[in-house]
Structure formats: structure tokens, C-alpha cells
Amino acid sequence: MALLLPTSTAGSLPKPSWLAEPEKLWSPWKLEGEPLLEAKQDALRLSLQEQVHAGIDIVSDGEQTRQHFVTTFIEYLDGVDFENRETVRIRNRYDASVPTVVGAVSRQKPVFVDDAKFLRAQTDKPIKWALPGPMTMIDTLYDNHYKSREKLAWEFAKILNQEARELEAAGVDIIQFDEPAFNVFFDDVNDWGVATLERAIEGLKCETAVHICYGYGIKANTDWKKTLGSEWRQYEEAFPKLQQSKIDIISLECQNSRVPMELIELIRGKKVMIGAIDVATHTIETPEEVANTLRKALQFVDADKLYPSTNCGMAPLPRQVAQDKLKALSLGTKIVRQELSNELK
Ligand SMILES: [Zn+2]
Q: Would you tell me which of 65, 131, 157, 275 could form a disulfide with 253, CB atoms 3.0–4.6 Å apart?
């Protein structure tokens, strides 16, 4: 029988301080050229080892080779000028200086495929690889060429599909698209957001996931969360369409969030990555707290479809905190696995 409740992380993990300044988003690299390439691979190896040591079942690169989950991918594309910057509002939440789309976007060479091959060579465990989703990509740019969010999203979906097919060929088991923008632009999600995501996974035989969260534990996000009231029902907007979509797995923020767990009923039939670790606090969850969140989720997700995970990436956290949180995730999952196997006896 396959392992019940396989654990994973939503994405990024902290980088070692010799690679980039810790506890910071968009942290600049401390090395360059050949030494940087080597250092990134070393960090990837370490990150993998830390995940294995913590008992994580589906491992990742911890996003050690990228500076940021969206911009690093875009840096590899033609048609985007990183010198020519404009200030835009990200996810209606905070202003950021972003690159400009100045011409047709295209991918001349693979972005993460070598990194994925490297990870594949290091482990026999199932591996998950994260890419930004089309809607979140357009939300992190100023578009001076297509002048249509939807058109640009379709172009990015085509490019993401090229990358995803090569990641699959490199041996990636699950390809995940990060779409925090799905929690903000509800009309777009339903008009073309889910459709562009399906374009991005066209022809893939590996499993596919979409990660929808309330963001990293940075101030702009935690301030925004305070304005959302006592119940967070944002997921309700995208779930019906996602339930009908070809995406296999949906990754959600559940630990310490005010998302009513029963909303998950709307995606019944899908595999669900339940965020049981809060990335916006340094407090380490107890295994029992993790188990509690998983038990609540089990009311709405069949046990064979529940994947315990983290609320979001952990890049901005201190390394030891992230490591302890991963251990708590494993231990909490073990408790529930035991309960489930007792029920089957
Ligand atoms: Zn996230």
C-alpha cells in the first residue's frame, strides 16, 4: 500500500548564510560566476538532506537556486526588460518596482531543468518542482507590449508548458504552479486564470499541483490578512472551477488561517495539500497542533488524497525554525497516520 499522508513543503526553504543574506526576500547572492553555481548546488544538496532528515516524503530543491519564486523564472525570458522598471501594486497589496514587458515573451533556453536533473540524481524519493503560475507572473510585471493581462497570461502559459514538459522528462514527479494571485483576482480566475493554468499543464503525464495561499509571512501580507475579517472565504471563488479542472492537487493555507475548513468540500475528489505549518510565525507547532489541523481536514478530504504540507514557502524564516517546523510536520503526520491505521484494524 502506498504511504498514507505523504508530507512535503509548499516551496522555498531558507538559504545558508554563505549563499545569500538570510531572512530576506530577493536577497542578493554572496558569490558570482562559477563559485555561485557550485554554491547553489551545494545548498540544494543541503536543503534536500535537511528535508530527508526531518522525515519529509516528497522532497524539493528548497528553491535554493532562485532568488525569488516569480522573478527568477522571468529573468530567463526574452521580451522582459529588467533595467526598465515601473512601480506597480502587487496583488492589490503593496507597491514594488518591477520589470517591464517590452516585446513578445519567449523562452530561449530551459530555466530550471538542469537543477531538476541535479536534484533527481541525488534522491530516489518523489520530487516536486515549483513554477510560478501565469496569473501571478503577470501580476509581478508592468506590461507595455500586450496591454492585456489575459493575453500575456496565455503567452506565459505556453512558456510554462515548455518548461514543465522538460521538467517532467528530467524526472520530476509533481509540478506545482504557485498562484497566490488566485486569492485576489476572482473574476480573472474564473474567466481565464484556471484555463491558462490548464494550458500550462497540457500534455503532462506527471502529477500537477496549484498552490494558493495568503503569501509569505512578510509584513505586507500579515497586514492584509488583518483586513480580511473573521472568516477567509477567498478559496470559495476559485474552488468550483478548480474542482472541474485537470489539476490533480490543490495546495492550501490552513494552519492558523481563518479559512473555514468545510470550503474544502468544494474540491472533493482532488488531492489536497493541507498547510499544517504556519510560515508567518517563528513559534514551532507542536505535533499535536499539526495533527489537529489534519484531523479537521480529514472531514472533507479522503485520507488517500490528503498531503500534509506547509502554508507557504519558508525562505524568510531562520534556518533552525524552518527545520524544527519540518520536524513538527512529520511528527504530527505520524500521529494521524497511526490513528488511521488503527481505524483500519
Ligand atoms: Zn504560498
A: 275
Tell me how far the alpha carbon of residue 204 lies from the centroid of ligand 1, in angstroms: 23
CA of 212 to the centre of ligand 1 (A): 6
- Is it the case that residue 59 has pLDDT exceeding 90? yes
Q: Which residues touch 140 (CB under 8 Å, ≥6 apart)?
A: 70, 71, 74, 90, 96, 98, 132
Q: Does residue 268 surpass a pLDDT of 90?
A: yes
Ligand 1 centre distance from Cα of residue 341 (Å): 31
- How far is Cα 47 from Cα 185, in angstroms, rounded to an integer? 33
Q: Ligand 1 centre from 70 Cα, in Å?
A: 11
| C-alpha span between 311 and 291 (Å, rounded) | 15
Distance 179 CA to ligand 1 centre (A): 8
Residue 91 has pLDDT above 90, yes or no: no
Question: Distance from the CA of 13 to the center of ligand 1, in angstroms?
Answer: 12
308 contacts: CB under 8 Å, gap ≥ 6? 5, 6, 7, 8, 273, 274, 276, 290, 294, 329, 332, 333, 336
Region 100-123: mean pLDDT is 98
Classify 69 as helix, strand or coil.
coil
Three-state SS for 99?
A: strand
**312 CA to centre of ligand 1 in angstroms:** 4
Cα(166) to centroid of ligand 1, in Å? 24
Tell me what the pLDDT averaged over the chain comes to. 95
Residue with cell 535537511: 50
Q: Which residues of 2-15 are buried (b: 16+ CB within 10 A; e: fewer)?
A: eeebbbbbbbbbbb
Please state whether the predicted TM-score (pTM) of the whole model is above 0.85: yes
**Ligand 1 centroid distance, CA of 80 (Å):** 24
The Cβ-side half-sphere exposure at 320, using a 13 Å CA radius, reads 1
Taking each continuous run of H as one helix and of E as one strand, the counts in the chain are: 11, 9
Q: Where are the alpha helices (DSSP H) in 92-148?
A: 113-122, 134-138
